[in-house]
Design a protein that fits this description.
alpha/beta; Peroxisomal Thiolase, Chain A, domain 1; ten-stranded mixed sheet; 32% helix; 3-oxoacyl-[acyl-carrier-protein] synthase activity
Amino acid sequence: MHETPAKHETPAMHDAPAMRAAPTLPETPAPAETPALRGTHGSAPHRRIVITSLGAITAHGAGAEELWQRVRGGEVAIRPLREFTVPGLPAAIGGEILDSPRPKYDYLSPLGLIDPEPAIDYALIAAEEAMAGAGLGVLEDGAPPRPDALPAHRWGVAFGSCNAGIRSAEKAVRRAVDVGRTVGVEELRLGDDRHLLLVPPQFCAEALSAAFGLKGPVLSVNTACASSAHALAHAVEQIRAGRADAMLVGGSDALSEMAYYGFNSVESLSARPARPYSRDRDGLSLGAGMLVLAAAEVALAAGAPIVAEVLGYGMSADGYHATAPHPQGAGAARAIRAAIDSADLTPAEVPYINGHGTGTPKNDSAESNAVRAALGEAARDVVLSSTKSMIGHLLGAAGAVEAIVTILGLRDEMIPPTAGFTETDPACGLDPAPNAARALPMRVAASNNFAFAGANACVVYGRPDSARPGSMPGRGDGRTEAADTTDRADETNRAEKVDHAGDVDEVVVTGIGVLIGPATDAEQLWAAWQGGAGAAESHKGLRLARVATDPGVAIAAKVRRRMDRLGQLAVATSAQALSAAGLTADESVGVVLGTGIGPMSSISRFFEPTVAGGPLQGNPAIFPNTVFNAAAGQVAMVLGAKGPTSTLTSGHAAGAAALGTAFDLLRAGRADAVLCTGADELSPYALDAYRGAGLFTGRHGRDFRLAEGSVTLLLERASTARARGATPLAILAGYATASDALGIARWDARGHGIERAMRDALAAAAVDPAELAAIWTAAAGLPVVDGPERRAIDRLGPGANCVRHEPKRVLGDPIGAGAQLAAALALTAWARGGDPGPALINASSLGGTHTSFVLRHPAAAPLES
């Protein structure tokens, strides 16, 4: 059983809910035969990733099989809204989930809340189905081993969402407006509404972790409409790296006013169900849903069902426009090629692609062009159909739910149709399987998802009897230059080296960019830390440290006008890191952003006027910046970094999660370099939410100060850094993530989760605790949070000469930028002649997710490549 942490007098701590047994639900039908897969217990890059079960809830009802049968039959579930209303848009249509059941796991009572959050409900309902059918149990701590179950710490969660708990935020805003009107207060005050605890994306992921007691890596991913496809890709890397043996993977989004008003503002809503790839398409319809996967090579040993294999994936950034895709689909084509290459396939071996297919004029033609560019001559024979024509656009859940349709289409060798198709548009021109499903022998299929801010993803799935050789690490960046053949050969050689010798390219830090408080570079940051905390701004009981300079001052005015403050912070520090490293960004350079609370200023600036004046007050110039990955998209557009991109939103551990994701992309050879930024801004909405939580004000938070800012680390593969003559500042030697699995806004007071993260990170880096020269803690002046980490470090047993640093207690807690802040200080300490021994850096989400990583001095550890 979970151990209940000690109670503390703070509203953020609650008694642990009782562990819930996995619900008994019908299994997802498995293929007729479950073939033997070979080589399933290899080292990281060659572990084959299988899907053991599916779960979904969509406008077609609850259940993956129900979804598939209705989609296969071409049934359209997009209709006038009944239960959800959109003020000002009375005739709105969408893929609405009607009569949704409540999940078995109770996440509300421990928080003292009543109103459920639909996005969390949908995620839990789909997860219940997937976990029940996975054929892999969860062993609680201390339980005897079973062949059909894994220890809790070997299970993880990767959750993708576009808007997460936005419905709860919308309700809170409307309640605050009503109260303000009643008492005659014009200023919007949200701080007393505890339903804001249901809004952050990471809390959705941590609800899944707690519901099933999963104590391994827990990630939340927010790359708009590509979120759950990215979540699946990151889960693949967690399993390949050996950090987990199984991951609960998926996405969830609910219908929201924000989405309707936003798409209405950019004229992308349709009065009819979407008609993707048709000449007369005019917009999209919205929906909500969720897919959960459990994937592991250990499935065979457990006798678990295997419904499909993940053969490969690809990601890229357009670097073109905030909302519109590249007209020729250049970025999307790179993602599709990368997925096919990493699956060790040729284009002719991919007969079917489940398309992004939103039904908007620019998106559908750009996707068709991307498929033609990626597949070449083979595009003449490929079928490209759209599930959105039947269930609507599920935003962050689209990749997960469309993966279900793709996988079950593979199982039955049946291509789902594009419903409502009318007349072929020459600008599209590929075979859309119009209006009727089609039988087609196939062993492999792909699924596309493309998003605002130019984030692209493609995942390739195979039947379990496909006899493919298994996914290889490969380049996976989809580049088409003449050097591609050589690149692939080089990467094959590297893959063989990994397989036989256990070596891979090291990941090094070659540049730093800083905008925190008064500091505009790493040296100023060091000086601010050494000089002690300056005067803090006071805001309604909160102590704040804001960025003292204008982050947009170095950005051209024409470009700056399109950015919000979060985007300006990210671009400014990314440009600084590139300049420091002497590197120019291109298609080989990726962007991974960590942001704990996201673009709250843009969200409030867009939504508040619509509450007061209706949907026509939604500003189309602001709406593109309301997605969490907008800042990463701005970095790609302004600086030309068009490699793989993703945005992680793990609360106060978001920057650390981003560093881990960037590390994995580089180790897998999917980029030569990655700009890894941690950034957050302080907006009135965010400050109200922090004040209302209770933990950060009064006697609990008297030593805590909240900060804003951005820090970017440029990470590179050691071989490419060496080849261009770059000087490494550090080696990122390894990392690990662990979860307390106690629920929303809960953590283990004994610090067992963060202890596990530290020990696993040190093991990954081959560093003994006694070797550590420094530990840069997550401590920020919150005793109930800092205490568990302190106790965990004591048990870890670092040597007597190891120094514990607490930089956030001096400079403030910059939310998602905390890990990058500590890393910048650690590297500066080395540069100034400090002890060159290994440094351990900790970050915690404030919801029970902990990430630790190890930095080595480059002179103290020879680089390998």
